[in-house]
Amino acid sequence: MTATGYWSDGTSLDLTPIATWDCTPSPVCGSVSANGFYTTGSSAGSYHVAATFYGVTNDGGSGIAVTAATISAQSKEHDRVANSGTVVREVLQLRSGIPASLLQKAECVIVVPSTLKFAVGVGGSYGRGVMTCRGGTNFQGPWGAPSMIALGGGSFGFQAGGQATDFVFLLMNQRAASSILKSKVKLGATASVAAGIVGREQTVATDAFLRADIISYSRARGLFAGVSVEGSTLRPDNRANRKLYGKAVSAKAIVLLGEVPPPSSALELLSVLNSKSPVNKSAGSSPQGR
Predict the structure, then answer these.
(1) 3-state DSSP assignment of residue 258
(2) pLDDT, tens digit, 9 for 90 and up, residues 19-55
(3) Which end of the chain is more exposed for a tag (fewer CB within 10 A), N or C?
(4) Which parts of the chain register pLDDT below 50?
(5) pLDDT tens digits for 259-269?
């Protein structure tokens, strides 16, 4: 394992050689050597491993604590979280990507990597991904621990049978976020949805676009574009959350209440979002949206 510090300018620093490690619960958790080598404990499961670094920061601070999140043997849930981070990084690097002004107004982001159609000629699709939101009661804090999310149903038009497609959804108000974290939401019915515009320098112009609860994008065959997903559904994947965090914890408790730390597999996802959109520039957040 490694202890990594992620800074606000998007850079990172390997702190492993100077970190102090602690693994709980002990002794079943196992142990971590000074150089970050993890030895499995006496039982299978997920454990919290913390790496703490004490020193003087370049801004004159007295020190900084670096917390590594819950870890376990690599699982498909961790893979999905890590893959979601890769998708976000690649999409936000595109000149024809999500407009910066739009991302800066989003309360939450959902990423569903490598969604596949059920079969050739069948429109329905199904995929699993993650949802992360800005922290704090008014979504003004840094991006936080992700909840696992399931995408189902719908027909996404241009897809060819078996063609993997990545989906990115921007949640533009608290109403959309709260609804998805509680139960299944049908896009276009329970929550309004609009196909996103592309281009990092684009400005959002139409009132109808701005009033949408959710903005949707997809990437397939190397093409990134806004996409209509009306009729599809989004819901929390509670079983996957249990596997990811090692205990039963609701999507709301993860995302809105901050009851668990982010998994180590979410480091890229959160560092990219905190670098590209560190401040919420929406007009304001309320249960009724903006």
Answers:
(1) coil
(2) 666 666 555 666 666 555 555 555 545 455 555 555 5
(3) C
(4) 44, 46, 56-57, 59-73, 117-123, 157-162, 285-290
(5) 999 988 898 99
Strand partners, 160: none
CA–chain centroid gap for 251, Å, is 12
List, as one string, the DSSP characters of 50-115. EEE-----TTS-S-------EE-S--HHHHHHHHHHHHHHHHHH-TTS--HHHHTT-SEEEEEEEE
Residues in a beta bridge with 5: 13
Residue carrying the six token digits 């007009």: 283
Q: Residue 197 carries which side chain, given as an amino acid letter?
A: I
170, exposed or middle or buried, with CB in 10 Å at 0-12, 13-18, 19+? Answer: buried
Nearest to 119 by CA among 161, 166, 165: 161
pTM: predicted TM-score of the whole model, two decimal places:
0.70
